[in-house]
Design brief:
The protein has eight helices and 17 strands. It is α/β, with parallel strands linked by helices. The protein has two domains: 164 residues, Alpha-Beta Complex (Quinone Oxidoreductase, Chain A, domain 1); 156 residues, NAD(P)-binding Rossmann-like Domain (Rossmann fold, 3-Layer(aba) Sandwich), CATH 3.40.50.720. Bound molecules: NADP nicotinamide-adenine-dinucleotide phosphate.
Amino acid sequence: MSTNAHVIFLKRPGAEGIPADDNFGFEKFPYPASPDTGEVLIKTLYLSVDPALRCRMNEDTGVHYVTPWEIGKEVDGFMGVGQVVQSADPGFSPGDIVESQAGWPWVAFFKRKQEEQNPLRKVDTALLGGNLTLPLTVLGLIGLTAYLGIKEKGGISAGQNQTLVVSGAAGACGSIAGQLGRLEGCARVVGICGSKEKCLFLTEELGFDAAINYKTENVKERLATLCPEGVDVYFDNVGGEISDTVISQMNKNSNVILCGQIAVYNKDLPYPPPIPENIENRIKEMSINRTRFLVLNYAEKFEETMKKLAELVLSGKIKVRETTMEGLENTGKAFVSMMNGGNIGKQLVHVADPQ
Ligand SMILES: NC(=O)c1ccc[n+]([C@@H]2O[C@H](COP(=O)([O-])OP(=O)(O)OC[C@H]3O[C@@H](n4cnc5c(N)ncnc54)[C@H](OP(=O)(O)O)[C@@H]3O)[C@@H](O)[C@H]2O)c1
């Protein structure tokens, strides 16, 4: 009989600290007993690590939708894909591949009863072309965030010669958002990201018109050159100075998709964080639309959007990239790496293969 193992949360980095590998520990413990009526026993296959988990490292998460991680306890992430090992729920059979989007523990085996808030969903592997990780990338919250952000807040109309700028552009949401912006009709798509390799990925593989490496280039000057008619849509994954620079070059009545602010996740600030007064003034003067976007507020659109995303990815109109770390014991390390820009596309952890 197998043993079980999980990642535990060992220490908080501090609200202004930088997450480190030793914030996490790993321990083995006994394999679970057989499921009781209504439960399924699941083996984790893949885990997602996400920037929003950073706030769970603090004593106060500062947001209403997640609770802090407890010291010494098993870490509870957001998304995962697994396989049913044993089932005492007539809705599931051993061998079924399942996924969940709003709560998946960093553990090798676990039992769960169906929950209304965070249901386990059976994955149709044939429909995914055998790609088990798609529910953690484009066919899950990541794809929904990119698609609904662009649709609901982007104000993109084909034929309007619009320029889209995406920050965090080579990451999970950003890489999909840029491609969707192009499909929606933007004339020019420019990405901002943190390495030369990422810039090449955007321009050579995803068809972005241009990319700016914010670590080595002058973002203000490069934006002015690459977006001579100003910026009409800004998909903002990062906030901070990069976003102040982009907003300073946005046109009248343009739109910011306020998706995330990862540049300040290691600062003890409310969400969304305050922005400098001159940027606030520019937003007012230029009538720039900039309101908070939270994908969870659009749950009624998820099913229909998922169908559209499936068509786009299976027809090859959207490309998906992943960076995968091996082994459950490295999940904390994968999270830290992603927070420091170690990923291209979605950062995942491969825990086990299906039987
Ligand atoms: N609104 C919503 O409902 C919603 C849902 C999901 C995600 N989000 C947000 O969307 C954003 C992207 O999430 P994701 O899952 O797609 O993550 P991701 O972009 O795949 O990974 C995070 C990336 O952020 C970049 N980064 C880290 N520190 C930075 C800094 N100081 N300045 C600029 N860039 C920095 C790194 O890339 P570089 O190499 O380019 O630095 C890193 O690869 C996050 O802000 C997240 O919180 C929002």
